[in-house]
Specification:
CATH topology of the largest domain: Homing Intron 3 (I-Ppo) Encoded Endonuclease, Chain A
Structural class: alpha+beta
CATH architecture of the largest domain: Alpha-Beta Complex
Radius of gyration: 18 Å
Number of strands: 7
Order of helices and strands: HEEEEEHEEHHHHH
Number of domains: 2
Oligomer: single chain
Distance between the termini: 53 Å
């Protein structure tokens, strides 16, 4: 049976910057057997994670598993870090800094959004656009209706 360490190392792209997770992602975070990959990295390289603590990213790259880019903190530390870096999920800082292609998990560029809207106006079917851009149809509708990417003209 393959160890979780072997599985982990098979799924990482080691670089001079972030070590990028190359397998299953959920909301940008690597996962292996239901466990967050950056937590696995911490335990492989640094040891057990004390109860009640989270593994946080210095680099703000959720798919990064490089130990020197990780640190321990509480959930409150995580919230404060996110807010201090302008990555809050609501409020003023979120609306100005956490949208569009600067969001690490974004699949689209601003030009893609413009192209989707133009193609739809030209008669393209939502199902076709969904396949072309690798998005579910509801995401295409949200772009067309401007409930997503509304800041892009």
């Amino acid at each position: 049976m393959t160890s979780i360490q072997d599985l982990f190392f098979d799924r990482v792209s080691f670089g001079s910057g972030c070590w990028e997770w190359q397998a299953t992602l959920h909301r940008g975070y690597g996962r292996l057997r239901g466990i967050l990959a950056h937590r696995i990295a911490w335990e492989i390289f640094r040891g057990l994670i004390p109860e009640g603590l989270c593994v946080l990213h210095k680099c703000d790259n959720p798919s990064c598993v490089k130990p020197s880019h990780l640190f321990l903190g509480t959930q409150l530390d995580n919230i404060k870090d996110r807010h201090a870096k302008g990555r809050s999920s609501s409020g003023e800082s979120h609306s100005k800094s956490c949208r569009g292609e600067i969001v690490g998990t974004s699949k689209l560029k601003e030009q893609d959004v413009r192209d989707i809207r133009r193609k739809r106006k030209e008669g393209a079917k939502v199902a076709t656009l969904s396949k072309e851009y690798g998005l579910v149809q509801s995401a295409i509708y949200a772009i067309i209706d401007r409930t997503r990417w509304g800041h892009i003209q």
